[in-house]
Structure formats: C-alpha cells, structure tokens
Amino acid sequence: MKKTALITGSSSGLGKAMAIRLAKDGFNIAVNFRGEPERQDALDVQALVRENGSEAEIFGCDVSDFSACKEMTKNVKERFSTIDVLVNNAGITKDGLLARMSEEQFDIVTAVNYKSVFNMTRYVSGVMIKQRSGRIINISSVAGVYGNPGQFNYSASKAGIIGMTLTAAKELGARNITVNAIAPGLIETPMTDSLSEELKSRMLDAVSLGRFGSPQDVAGAVSFLAGEDSAYITGQVLVVDGGLII
Ligand code: NAD
Description:
Number of helices: 9
Helix content: 40-55%
Bound molecules: nicotinamide-adenine-dinucleotide
Distance between the termini: 42 Å
Structural class: alpha/beta
Shape: globular
Order of helices and strands: EHEHEHEHEHHEHHHE
Largest sheet: 7 strands, parallel
Radius of gyration: 17 Å
Strand order of the largest sheet: 3-2-1-4-5-6-7
Number of strands: 7
C-alpha cells in the first residue's frame, strides 16, 4: 500500500513541486488549498500527481483555522487510511518596515505561517502516534534564521517554526516520528514574483551559486526528509539557499 503525504498550500509554488516530486517517489498526495479561488489550481495539481502514477485528493482548508485543520486531518485519514508525511508549507508575506507595520499585517502572517503549524501538527501527530511512524517537515525560511529587513512579521513566524520543530522532535521521537525544518533562500515562485527587480538583483549578488533556487530544489530536500535515507535525522534545519547565508 502506498504511503500518504499531506502538503499544506500545495495548489501552487513550492507545494505544487513537492506534490509532484513525492508522487514520483510513490506517495499518494493530499493536496491542500485555501479556498474557492484556488480550487482549479488544486485540481490541476491533482491531475499532475495522477500523471505521475499516484492517487491525489484535494482538501479545501484555511490552515490558520484550528477546527478546520481538525476536520481536514479526519478527512485525509478517512480517504487514505494513513498520514505518513506532513509538510507544513502554506505561507504568505505582508511585508513592510516595522515602524509602519499594522497589527493586521502581523496577525495574519503569524496566523497563516506559524499558528497553522501548531494546528496541523497538533492533529496529524495524533494520527502518527497511533501509527508509530511519521515524518513532519516544516517550511521555514532563511528569514527565520538570519532575519530580513521589512519582514518582521514573516521572520518571526519562520523563526517560531524552528522552535516548534525542535520541541516536536523531542516530544515525538520516541514514537518514531521525525520532525525537521527546511529553510529555503530565494526561490522562484509566485511569492517572490512580487519582489522588486532591484531587491532580487541585490539578493542574487549574495547567492554563492549565482542563481535563484527552483521549486524542484526545495522539493528534492523534502523528498530526502520524507524518505528512508533520513530515518535517523530529526530536529534539524536544512538550509536550501544556494549559499545565500554562508
Ligand atoms: P506561493 O504563494 O506560491 O504558495 C503558497 C501556498 O500557500 C499557496 O498555495 C497558497 O494558496 C497557500 N496558502 C496561503 N494561505 C493559506 C491558508 N490560509 N491555508 C491554506 N493554504 C494557504 O509561495 P511559495 O513560495 O510556494 O511558498 C511556500 C512556502 O515556502 C511558504 O511557507 C513560504 O514562506 C516558504 N518560503 C518560500 C520562499 C521563496 O523564495 N519562494 C523562501 C523561503 C520560504
């Protein structure tokens, strides 16, 4: 029987690339999308997963909503029987300098990026504890490790994810559940499309490999942390940034 991976925010960008990669690795995929405007994108990802030989189902859920995450976890478990991999990938930015940042900008980014990791891990870990196995992969950011001007809210949310990763790794290790984080650098997705050309070119100057990352670069790291070769790795932050922060 195939294992199942639940990937939050997998209707576009990195999450979509992860869905396709894990489908190629032999996982069935639970594709999470936020709401109606993203339904068609999620259906497209479902079709791509099927083209790659695995089964996929789409699940609409705003991951900042605690009770909706409970419901989605129940539905994914009913559909696929197990949840073997959880990738907490959904995220947004609402950038601005601290002196001008609104309470709303702070609250929405921390709810979607950070509280969602609690919401999903809270429920999916229960399923994994009963299975006595599981992999949890949290998508942080180099902004959570090193900070980034204009991203006070975002870097707080991404640093918080690292704290949750470490504690969950300690709590869940005895149940054969690994918990790791990935900290991507500058990756070309719809999220980074909106950055100014000037900022992108300044950041690119600092990337040792001299290029932006692709969604496939991050999906490869997810594949490793979801697979057998990483069975003895937990509580780690894997930086996938082409040498941006060395
Ligand atoms: P993206 O905007 O292409 O994708 C984000 C996904 O999250 C979308 O599918 C969106 O619908 C979903 N989403 C947003 N709010 C949601 C909600 N409330 N509930 C459910 N789904 C929701 O961006 P991306 O670049 O693919 O980002 C994916 C993750 O990678 C994010 O956590 C982001 O912070 C992180 N990241 C991205 C980069 C980068 O350079 N692109 C760098 C570091 C970290």
